């Protein structure tokens, strides 16, 4: 129903009810129509000369004539209301309550009147002209529009600022961006501390403020656009605080020297990284026990996201597999930022948790064919694929119950090369159970993972190469690592009794893949005050892929500059693994 249009349209009816030939003049006002096939109603927004707008909703299947009649009625009511308020009503107006209905018609782009029997969904086309009395409106159907525009709360000099841009009938890559900075105070002691006038600071979606902008706020003006060069109404947003000084040299700066460019068509740069979920970094236990050496501000999610976005952007990766990704961080920070750098993101949350896994792939190199994500506990319980393992585990109820209580998940994505459709990849990403005495639980989880991956990479898509990334919480000496690396594990392996004899669950396991750790077995990928060790890996299919280069990890001196990780110069307690792979 029309909301608040009566007074606004009163002036239209007073202009007279005569028709105006469609080609007589170009309409200055706009009639913005939003019509989505999946919704029962369309909305009509009349943008008035003073910039204000009035709205109406109508059924898409309703005949046009009924919508036009309602427009005429509301216009007449607006005129009558205006007449009652006037001290000297015009004689020709007659009684205020008997206002004459203005002529309301809709003309197609070629100037023909649209039949009143046509359904609304078909009648309101882009470029049509709506006539209400003597006023004329140009119809814009589903124009590009911004639904959200937001800047990060923390801005650091030298670190990319990636706004969150959500749009309808538009795409961020087709939007226009204009950045502005606040002017510095004039220094004469007069006037406001911050002047309203601003200077342009770049025209790209991602903006990296220089040291000269420290202490100044930023403003972004975004005009939504689509692939056909249509543009909608712009919107502006200001930063909540000023640009702050960056931390100086970071642990990843030297690594970026190896990844300045995206690797060639026949190669794939892969990253695996546990980025430390905010849900775990912002606990009292984390601040006082796990990371007491880390400055409190450096544990804040906004600060760490600045570092993380710069680090990931600088790797110019084709595939990025992340663990411990907060749901809100993915939606509000990582996905918008990496989208601006050409990467598409997929998210899988852990059951009853606020964090999960994220896989990103470069859009101009790969397209997504299918997703096959699972929760280990659900798959083990319900999938016929795991019936044999489920039966074996039934003999060890204590272990089975622990496995079923875990919320761990597996992300499996099948990608196809954009330049060579015959090349496909199965990309898996996981984060196994963390407990030091949970080796038997991890063995069950990885057995479920590899059986599921076999179904995808061997049965659904025969013989496609596998890249399996993750935080496996397993050192190179563990049963889990050995099982992945060799293809089998004996039923008497010591890890089956990792939590004591009461939870021993002896069983032989095997898998058909020939996998290797692309980055080898570094001394550590996780370095905190009380522990360091290699827990993260990028496993690759040796039959189809080989390692081109491994990006060196930070030196021990860099890692321990601030005692351990995370720190003011490193956003996580883990270190990213980065390697270039190529097809054999």
TrEMBL record:
GO terms for cellular component: mitochondrial matrix; mitochondrion. The keyword Phosphoprotein applies. It comes from the Eukaryota. Residues 272-574 form the Endonuclease/exonuclease/phosphatase domain. Keywords: Exonuclease, Hydrolase, Magnesium, Metal-binding, Mitochondrion, mRNA processing, Nuclease, Phosphoprotein, Signal, Transit peptide. It is found in: Mitochondrion matrix. Its cofactor is Mg(2+). Residues 75-103, 185-206 are annotated as: Disordered. Its main location: mitochondrion. Residues 143-244 form the 2',5'-phosphodiesterase 12-like N-terminal domain. GO terms for biological process: antiviral innate immune response; cellular response to dsRNA; cellular response to interferon-alpha; cellular response to type II interferon; mitochondrial mRNA catabolic process; mRNA processing; nuclear-transcribed mRNA catabolic process, deadenylation-dependent decay; positive regulation of viral genome replication. Belongs to the CCR4/nocturin family. This is 2',5'-phosphodiesterase 12. It comes from Gallus gallus (Chicken).
